[in-house]
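Query structure, 214 tokens:
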């Protein structure tokens, strides 16, 4: 087995290994997800970033994948972003960004991350304040930690992620309307409601792994 294949195999196993604890935490929070699906998606995501990026930046997209996959699945199924993961994302992403800054990104990366968290989280808080039905409280809590990742990537990523998330939500709404999917019990939602968390997470993940990231 070549070293590259071995590293990717380890990355896939590590990604899959993040699913059981996340699924357990979400089940305790009343938002169970499919552990096999979470494991496969996390394995694919972690393998993809491991194959692409230098070691110093890896902690950031890996942490984002580990938290983002189960949160997205929970929001799609239950229309919820439980605090057990949304709030845990702050110290986890903060630690990952700190490692990246020390490993090669420099102090400017950490400064941008803090500013990004304030700007992105603050912008979503303002939107919820002005239009309470447009965003959930979980979306606002999630936006702060995602803003830290986006800020670490660069200022352009904040605007790009906001636009991408809006587009992804529109696509999800169209697919949901075509498929006629109803909100699952015991968390009924208005027919027009679309979970925005998965769109935010996917947009941030793409900004963190596509060309132009640190």
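Result returned for the query:
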């Amino acid at each position: 087995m070549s070293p590259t294949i071995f590293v990717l195999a380890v990355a896939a196993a590590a990604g899959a290994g993040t699913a059981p604890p996340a699924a357990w935490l979400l089940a305790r929070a009343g938002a169970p997800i499919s552990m096999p699906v979470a494991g496969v998606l996390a394995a694919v995501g972690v393998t993809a970033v491991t194959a692409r990026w230098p070691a110093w930046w890896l902690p950031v997209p890996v942490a984002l994948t580990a938290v983002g996959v189960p949160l997205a699945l929970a929001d799609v199924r239950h229309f919820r972003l439980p605090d057990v993961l949304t709030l845990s994302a702050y110290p986890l992403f903060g630690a990952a960004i700190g490692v990246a800054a020390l490993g090669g990104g420099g102090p400017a990366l950490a400064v941008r991350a803090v500013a990004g968290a304030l700007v992105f989280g603050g912008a979503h808080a303002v939107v919820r304040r002005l239009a309470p039905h447009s965003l959930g409280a979980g979306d606002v809590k999630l936006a702060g930690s995602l803003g830290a990742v986006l800020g670490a990537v660069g200022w352009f990523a904040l605007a790009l992620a906001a636009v991408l998330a809006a587009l992804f939500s529109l696509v999800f709404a169209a697919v949901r309307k075509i498929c006629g999917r109803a909100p699952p019990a015991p968390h009924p939602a208005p027919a027009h409601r679309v979970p925005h968390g998965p769109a935010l997470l996917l947009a941030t993940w793409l900004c963190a792994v596509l060309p132009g990231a640190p």
